[in-house]
Amino acid sequence: MREAVTGSPAARLLLYMRLLMVAGCVACLGVLLGHDGLTILGVLWSVFAAGIFAALWYLLERLQRLPARIEVLATPQQQEGEFLSAMGHDLRQPAQAIALFAATLSAHPLPDSSRKLVSGIESAVEQLSEQLEAVFAIAKLEAGRVECSTRPLSLDGLFSQAINSHLDEAHERQLHLRHVPTARRVLGDEAMLLKAIDRMVAHAVAITGEGGGVVLGARQRGSMVLIEVWDSSEGIAVELLPQVFIPGSSYGQNLKDRGLGLVLARRLAVLQGGQLTLASRAGRGCLLRLALPAA
Q: Residue 136 in contact with residue 62, Cβ under 8 Å?
């Protein structure tokens, strides 16, 4: 199956990225040895990042062409799965290497201007890694390579975990982030549900301005439990609402995760027998609502 990918544009792009990674490593070593290589490192990082985002865009285009339910013969599906897995490894590897070298650089005495550059590299790699993880998680779901095991789950503990993972960012931006204690229980897959709630909270935090608020809670409506995330953002433009759950759409261009978090959350919701929707009013914020069967 690997022969089918060899020589393709994706394969050449990945080879190019590996070469850039080696060049970046050499530049980092030059800095550590005391040479004036930090400016070169910045240039190399810019080129490397361009290669990464080109590969990410390539994969998003492939993902958009996949049908909602993949109904193909076993052999093509296996080929697609192998291609995505191989690409995931190749994209994660250089990102992790750059993060390691940036962390090594930050541990050394550096002038303020150089430290600012290293900090920017670390931030960019963190953002890139988040996008890649979302892309490949979506791809695995679309390919039917993830099993869902539903059981009765208590929401309060999951809410606490989701909120705690974003407290540092909320504190830095002076956001009021909290959840309403609840005794509600739902039928769901614990790992999938936690990831979906986490992505919902992450989106609300990302679009809410400094000093705003984000609240996570749950209520029951008939046989369904509604998990809701309210925010005090400026809302989403009406013309962009249909694009919110489309990977690679213009809506996500200004978001840290390129909007892939909500795409993943919706896929996870459907897999658990639920539904994720978003409502918005200009100047009054957004409401993300995940509906799941009550336990």
A: no
Tokens of 68: 């909602």
pTM greater than 0.85:
no
CB atoms within 10 A of CB 257: 20
The predicted-structure confidence for 203-225, as pLDDT tens digits, reads as follows 999 999 999 999 999 999 999 99
- Strand 285-293 with 275-281, pairing: antiparallel
Is the Cβ–Cβ distance between 255 and 206 less than 8 Å?
yes
Reduced to 3 states, what is the DSSP secondary structure of residue 152?
A: strand
Could you tell me the residue range of the domain that residue 183 belongs to? 151-293
∠ CA 5-7-13, nearest 5°, is: 90
d(CA 245, CA 93): 28
Task: Say which DSSP state 209 is in.
Answer: P
Question: Are 91 and 194 members of one domain?
Answer: no
Give the Cα separation of 231 and 224 in Å (integer): 22
DSSP conformation class of 294: B
Residues 196 and 238 in one domain: yes
107/155 same-domain check: no
Q: Judge whether 294 and 274 are in contact, CB under 8 Å.
A: no
